[in-house]
Model the fold of this input.
Amino acid sequence: MPKNARGISETVIRRMPVYHRYLKELIDSGIERVSSKELSHITGFSASQIRQDLNNFGGFGQQGYGYNTKALKEQVDKILGIDKTYNSIVIGAGRLGQAIARYKGFRDSGFNVISLFDIKEDIEDISGIKVRSIKCLEKYIRDEKVEVAIITVPKEFCEDVAKRVIDAGVKGIWNFAPYDLKAPAGVAVENIRLNDSLLTLSYFMKEIS
Done:
C-alpha cells in the first residue's frame, strides 16, 4: 500500500474522512466525549486500530477519558486539510458537472467551486456559478490561482484536459472521467470510478438474491 512523505499508509488516510463524518454527527448530537471503544461501535473499526490511526498524527486522547469530540474533529480537519480553502473549478458542464457544482458540501469541506468550463459556449450559469469557454481555461487558472480541477469530461478528452490544468498550475485533480489519470510529483490525483462502485453493488445484490 502506498505511503505518503510521512510514511503513513493510504489505508490510514482513507479512514480519516470516516472519523471526520462520525465525529461531526456526534457533535451535532451534543456528545462532548467519546472513547475509542465507542468510536469502534460507530465506525466498525477496532478500538486498537482507531488509536493506532490517530497516533500516526499525534496523541489526541486521554487515558480513562477518551477524546473530546470537538477537539478531535478540529485535529482531523487539520489532518485532512479542511481548515484550508481551495479555489476549485469544474471542467465539463454536463449533468454530472452541474450536479457537482450545485453540491454545497464542497464549500463546507473547503473546496470553493468558482467556475465551470465547457466546450459549449452558450450554457447558462449553474446556481450562480458562471460557465466559461474552455478556451480561456489556462488564463483563468493562473489569474484566479485555482488549485483544484474537477474533471467530468468524456474519456477521450481527459488526458488532454489534465495536462492543460497541470501545466497551468493546478495542484489537485478530482477525476470523474472513466480514465485512470497519473500525475507528476507535486500534483495529487483522485480517480473516482463510479462504474466500479456500481459493479460492486451488483455483486453484493447477486449474493443476497
